[in-house]
């Protein structure tokens, strides 16, 4: 079996080492926001953006009415990583191309490896349409894996920063601030209205069971950034590892709304689970199914639609599939379903709508 198709033992060893310890709180300075650059493709290569803005886009729309957010965890702990990621990117490209042309798309990815980042930046559809927050692993808490975000070029990025969480796995929040122009009705000749911000947070909360629990600390650390007065709306999404009873109320305890629940979804429902269906039967029998992946939001934004994505997506290359089967590997791209939410900016303070038919 080729090295690229092997289970990543170095990652497993690092995680096993982390499991042997408890999460230790660092000094306060450690948890301060860490600004980072982001990247755009100029038709020949990727270039970093720090303080210099990218060339203006002819399709620029800094006051969008609608927004599509996709979040997906691509399992880093199983073999055949390259063909899995290739299939995942092909699938994501179909979701992007099927989105209405006027609707900006944002993609959150978790459990990315350095090799995954190479595949992302080499994808033509990514180069053409998206900014990327991570060209390589330089801004991750550790060098082995992390999160990355793709931001539609129709949007104007104001800043990108990471906030470390208390974590023994090096978890953090990857924040992107999107600049929004004031609406026309708020503009007057006598008074200037300050530009507002849509804040995005891509996160992978602490895995497994911890005593004391860590995920409540992590989401409560994210909440002040999501409720920052400079933001008009905030969206947080990712693999929230919601596997214990207390996870069900973390959003409300932090004054956040859960997109799935807002549209009539129910806990302990088969149509909400995002983990447990695409794992070996023995694993499913031991751990069951759970709604690990979520989209949370607050502010002047309303959720219009929500669905799971990535269900049944497999590697399709016949030669690779044959090798995977010979090695006893499942063909799933990842063990997680992803989640996709459609949002209306400026829709957070409108009357409640009938949501019974809105949940896919």
Keywords:
22% helix; alpha+beta; nuclease activity; metal ion binding; single chain; six-stranded mixed β-sheet; Deoxyribonuclease I, Chain A; 360 residues; single-stranded DNA binding; nuclease; 5'-tyrosyl-DNA phosphodiesterase activity; 15 strands; seven-stranded mixed β-sheet; 9 helices
Topology at a glance:
Blueprint: H1 9-19, E1 34-35, E2 38-41, E3 46-49, E4 66-73, H2 81-97, E5 105-112, H3 114-122, H4 124-129, E6 130-132, E7 146-152, E8 157-164, E9 172-180, E10 196-204, H5 215-226, E11 231-239, H6 250-253, E12 257-258, H7 259-262, H8 281-287, E13 293-299, E14 301-309, H9 318-326, E15 338-345
Parallel strand pairs: 4-5, 10-11
Antiparallel strand pairs: 1-8, 2-3, 4-15, 5-7, 6-7, 8-9, 9-10, 11-13, 12-13, 14-15
What does this protein look like?
The protein is of the alpha+beta class and 360 residues long. The protein has one domain: Endonuclease/exonuclease/phosphatase (Deoxyribonuclease I, Chain A, 4-Layer Sandwich), CATH 3.60.10.10. Helices cover 22% and strands 27% of the residues. It has 9 helices and 15 strands. Strands 1-8-9-10-11-13-12 form a 7-stranded mixed beta sheet. The N and C termini lie far apart (40 Å). GO terms for molecular function: 5'-tyrosyl-DNA phosphodiesterase activity; metal ion binding; nuclease activity; single-stranded DNA binding. Its cofactor is Mg(2+); Mn(2+).
């Amino acid at each position: 079996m080729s090295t690229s198709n092997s289970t990543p033992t170095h990652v497993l060893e690092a995680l096993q080492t982390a499991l042997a310890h408890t999460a230790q709180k660092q000094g306060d300075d450690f948890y301060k926001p860490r600004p980072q650059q982001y990247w755009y493709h100029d038709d020949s290569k990727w270039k970093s953006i720090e303080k210099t803005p990218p060339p203006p886009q002819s399709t620029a729309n800094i006051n969008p009415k609608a927004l599509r957010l996709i979040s997906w965890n691509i399992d880093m702990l199983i073999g055949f990583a390259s063909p899995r990621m290739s299939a995942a990117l092909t699938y994501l490209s179909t979701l992007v191309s099927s989105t209405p042309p006027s609707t900006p798309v944002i993609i959150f990815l978790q459990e990315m490896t350095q090799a995954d980042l190479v595949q992302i930046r080499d994808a033509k559809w990514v180069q053409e349409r998206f900014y990327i927050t991570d060209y390589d692993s330089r801004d991750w808490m550790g060098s082995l894996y992390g999160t990355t975000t793709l931001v539609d070029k129709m949007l104007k990025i104001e800043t990108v920063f990471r906030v470390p969480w208390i974590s023994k796995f090096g978890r953090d929040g990857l924040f992107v601030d999107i600049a929004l122009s004031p609406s026309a009705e708020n503009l007057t000749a006598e008074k200037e209205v300050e530009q507002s911000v849509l804040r995005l947070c891509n996160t992978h909360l602490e895995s497994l069971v911890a005593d004391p629990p860590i995920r409540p600390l992590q989401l409560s650390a994210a909440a002040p950034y999501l409720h920052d007065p400079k933001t008009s709306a905030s969206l947080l999404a990712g693999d929230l590892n919601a596997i214990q009873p207390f996870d069900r109320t973390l959003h409300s305890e932090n004054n956040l709304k859960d997109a799935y629940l807002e549209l009539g979804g129910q806990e302990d429902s088969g149509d909400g689970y995002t983990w447990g269906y695409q794992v070996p039967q023995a694993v499913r029998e031991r751990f069951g199914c759970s709604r690990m992946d979520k989209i949370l939001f607050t502010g002047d934004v309303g959720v219009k639609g929500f669905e799971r994505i990535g269900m049944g997506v497999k590697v399709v290359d016949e030669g690779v599939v044959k090798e995977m089967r010979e090695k006893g590997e499942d063909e799933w791209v990842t063990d997680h379903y992803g989640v996709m939410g459609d949002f209306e900016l400026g829709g957070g303070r409108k009357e409640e709508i009938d949501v019974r038919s809105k949940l896919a």
